[in-house]
Amino acid sequence: MKIAIIGAGWYGCHIALELKKQGYDVDIYEKNNAIFSGISGSYGIRHHRGTHYPRSEKTREICADNFNEFLSLYPELIIDHQYA
After folding, report:
1. pLDDT at 83 over 60
2. 50-69 in b/e burial notation, b at 16+ Cβ within 10 A?
3. How many CA atoms lie within 13 A of 8 on its CB side?
4. Among 20, 12, 2, which Cα is nearest to 40's?
5. DSSP secondary structure string, 1-53?
6. Can you give the pTM of this predicted structure?
7. Quick one: which H or E segment has residue 73?
8. pLDDT digit string (tens) for 18-53?
9. Given pLDDT bands bounded at 50, 70 and 90, which one contains residue 61?
């Protein structure tokens, strides 16, 4: 089956990779010249572990779980840093 993905941001690229793993023929269409060149590259690249949600335990848990899943899928995209 041939599948077209519109947009080469985080979601489009991740969905394309997952579908390719399942054996689908996938094409990504992006209006810009490079992937992650819209919101995903400008503002969406900050992924945290939930500490920004002090009043919502559930949101903190979801952020932490999703961070760990992202880390296991894309370890080469993580830049570890320390705050001064």
Report:
1. no
2. beeeeeeeeebeebeeeeee
3. 12
4. 12
5. -EEEEE--SHHHHHHHHHHHHTT-EEEEE-SSSSTT-SHHHHTTT----STT-
6. 0.64
7. helix 57-73
8. 999 999 999 999 999 988 887 766 665 556 665 666
9. confident
